[in-house]
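In this section we walk through a basic example: taking a raw amino acid sequence and producing a predicted 3D structure, encoded as discrete structure tokens. The instruction is simple. Fold the sequence below.
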Amino acid sequence: MKISARIEDGDAILSLTTISSRSMLKVNEADRLADDLERFLIDPDAEAINRHYRLVPHGTGLSVQTTQGDFDLPWRHITSVVNGLRANV
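The resulting token sequence is shown next.
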């Protein structure tokens, strides 16, 4: 499993690739997404974040929710997603 992230015109694109499939989620107006994700690394018990997206912590990671769908982000992948988002800024 590979999870990656990038910023395009202010929106984040989260991608999950496995051996047999690939899924993507677009997060609109995601200029603060990297900081919001990183907040949960510092405090995994932080309250859910509600912006143009919603970040909800659960036992195995975070649920990234938008009007277009949702994406489960395991704890072990948050740092690489944050780095991917910041690399495009």
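Looking at the output, two observations stand out. Residues 14 and 70 are 10 Å apart (CA to CA). The two ends are 25 Å apart (CA to CA). In the next section we compare this with other chains.
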